[in-house]
């Protein structure tokens, strides 16, 4: 399979005793680098006396963040984006996983669909945005279509990889005991491929989150992409930067606190199959 | 035991097998033309297949297609090259210095999370619309992924291997050149590959709003005139280029290097080997 299966941020969990020992230090270890960046940022702003329409100071960005948060705008825009992402992830998994099972388990289906899949992977979801806007208007459907399209391909591809990694004996064993095809899917393919599926989901979220931001910039119906692109019109750099920080933070929260634990969990629980 | 098949039957089987990958295109194309011939949707909604092919010919003959493709590829090359070179260099410096790596890691995670299209509104103000903007967004996407993967790769090279070369009298440079670099290469290439994936997407997204030429701009402009034939043609061309790049550029490089140095990469999977934890 010619497709990269690791997300941009592959990381290994440290031994638990070590991380327990380092936990008090962890806060400082995260805060310090960002403090350094903020200091440099402030120094640049101050040294060249940059206009607010070119670069906002950290203080201005903080003020704008508080202002936007107090008026509920920030929560509203963030919720719109997160909801879209959640719905898209769910639908993509429901479409992608069964399709991945079919391709991974069946030689003929694989031969028929794999080439097309690889081709579609090269056309980014955002490229379909103009057509989606013509068909569905400036609506949530447009955004969802683009994000689902973006998410579903990595999920399918990684499901295939996962299914192919399962030793055939497991399938044969269940088959000889009289298990139905559905039963095999549920008891062998799903647990066996789950770690790989989650990897696909993670990679897909990386692409999908960006596709969503891009779609929101063009569709302009709420969402964080709309927030930063709208602020652009009035050169509200402080708002743009608030949006950027929020986009990054939310992505890290979803990726590290939601998806990665699932990945670790599935690996620990069913990783045996992937030797 | 199955009855032996006749030669004709075998030949047919082989033909079907060879044509199978094209079946989705054929089925989709057939469904598309049947629908189009029954419903006759206006061009502003859906093109016919012949209309779309006509658009490709029309664009190719007027020369704009070539201009747009070259503009996109040039940006991709510039941004990706900058991103890869800087990412690998920074990755090595960081990966070889444990304290630096620990310090930079949270920043890497954060800036990787906002890489690419997220910078668009800010960068439009700073560098304006055009090649610079697209190159920055691609560089940004590629750099952080390559950086992160290089650091990981460098850190995962078993220390024993490096030490043994050192014991044999190799200097720091020699060790990096002959042990660390090949050892980290599979990870670096993995980073390059996902980086190009993100970069290609960022490019199209950037060109939609932030350029006057390029494939993304071509389809976005077409949307203004409701030329769905150009939009669909553009999407297909984007897919063909991406597939060509993957097959003739990335796959050979990866195959050659991973095959050559894959041994080092494989030893990474062994339990409890000399990792710099």
> What portion of residues of chain A is helical?
over 70%
Beta-strand content estimate of chain A: under 5%
Q: What overall geometry of chain A do the principal axes of the alpha carbons give? A: globular
Using only C-alpha atoms, the radius of gyration of chain A works out to: 22 Å
SSE order of chain B, as H and E?
Answer: HHHHHHHHHHH
| Cα end-to-end separation of chain B | 56 Å
Q: Number of helical runs of chain A?
A: 10
Q: Give the overall shape of chain B, derived from the CA principal axes.
A: flat
- The overall pLDDT average of chain B reads 85
Residue fraction in strands of chain B: under 5%
Given the helix and strand composition of chain B, which structural class is it?
A: mainly alpha
* Greatest interface: A-B, 70 and 75 residues
> What portion of residues of chain B is helical?
over 70%
How can the largest sheet of chain A be summarized? none
Summed over residues and divided by their number, the pLDDT of chain A gives a mean of 85
Element order, helices and strands of chain A? HHHHHHHHHH
Q: How far apart, in Å, are the first and last alpha carbons of chain A?
A: 18 Å
| DSSP strand count of chain A | 0
How would you classify the helix and strand content of chain A by structural class? mainly alpha
């Amino acid at each position: 399979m010619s497709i990269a299966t690791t997300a941009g941020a592959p990381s290994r969990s440290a031994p638990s005793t070590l991380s327990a020992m380092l936990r008090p230090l962890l806060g400082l270890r995260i805060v310090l680098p960002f403090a350094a960046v903020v200091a440099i940022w402030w120094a640049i702003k101050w040294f060249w006396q940059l206009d607010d329409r070119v670069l906002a100071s950290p203080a201005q960005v903080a003020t704008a963040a508080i202002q936007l948060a107090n008026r509920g705008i920030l929560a509203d825009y963030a919720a719109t984006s997160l909801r879209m992402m959640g719905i898209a992830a769910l639908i993509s998994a429901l479409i992608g996983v069964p399709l991945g099972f079919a391709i991974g388990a069946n030689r003929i289906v694989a031969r028929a669909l794999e080439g097309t899949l690889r081709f579609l992977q090269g056309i980014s979801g955002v490229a379909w945005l103009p057509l989606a806007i013509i068909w569905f208007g400036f609506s949530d459907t447009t955004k969802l279509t683009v994000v689902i399209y973006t998410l579903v391909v990595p999920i399918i591809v990684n499901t295939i990889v996962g299914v192919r990694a399962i030793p055939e004996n497991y399938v044969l064993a269940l088959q000889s005991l009289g298990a139905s095809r559905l039963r095999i899917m549920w008891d062998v393919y799903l647990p066996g491929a789950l770690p790989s599926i989650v990897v696909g989901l993670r990679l897909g979220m990386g692409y999908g989150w960006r596709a969503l931001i891009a779609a929101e910039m063009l569709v302009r119906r709420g969402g964080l992409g709309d927030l930063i692109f709208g602020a652009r019109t009035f050169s509200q750099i402080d708002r743009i930067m608030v949006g950027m920080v929020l986009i990054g933070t939310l992505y890290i929260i979803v990726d590290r606190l939601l998806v990665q634990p699932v990945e670790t969990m599935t690996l620990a629980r069913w990783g045996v199959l992937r030797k | 035991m199955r009855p032996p098949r006749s030669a004709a039957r075998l030949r047919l089987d082989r033909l079907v097998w060879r044509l199978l990958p094209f079946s989705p295109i054929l089925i989709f194309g057939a469904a598309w033309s049947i629908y189009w011939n029954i419903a006759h949707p206006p061009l502003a909604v859906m093109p016919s297949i012949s209309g779309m092919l006509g658009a490709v010919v029309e664009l190719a003959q007027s020369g704009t297609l070539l201009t747009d493709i070259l503009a996109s590829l040039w940006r991709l090359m510039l941004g990706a090259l900058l991103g890869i070179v800087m990412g690998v260099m920074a990755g090595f410096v960081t990966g070889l210095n444990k304290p630096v790596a620990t310090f930079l890691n949270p920043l890497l995670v954060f800036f990787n999370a906002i890489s690419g299209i997220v910078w668009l509104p800010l960068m439009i103000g700073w560098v304006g619309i055009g090649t610079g903007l697209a190159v920055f967004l691609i560089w940004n996407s590629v750099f952080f992924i390559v950086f992160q993967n290089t650091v990981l790769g460098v850190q995962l090279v078993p220390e024993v291997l490096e030490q043994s070369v050192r014991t044999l009298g190799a200097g720091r440079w020699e060790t990096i050149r002959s042990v660390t670099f090949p050892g980290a290469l599979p990870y670096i290439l993995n980073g390059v590959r996902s980086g190009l994936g993100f970069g290609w997407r960022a490019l199209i997204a950037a060109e939609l709003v932030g350029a006057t030429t390029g494939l993304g701009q071509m389809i976005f402009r077409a949307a203004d005139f409701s030329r769905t034939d150009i939009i669909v043609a553009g999407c297909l061309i984007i897919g063909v280029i991406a597939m060509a790049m993957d097959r003739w550029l990335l796959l050979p490089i990866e195959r050659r290097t991973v095959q050559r140095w894959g041994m080092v990469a494989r030893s990474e999977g062994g339990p409890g080997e000399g990792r710099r934890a």
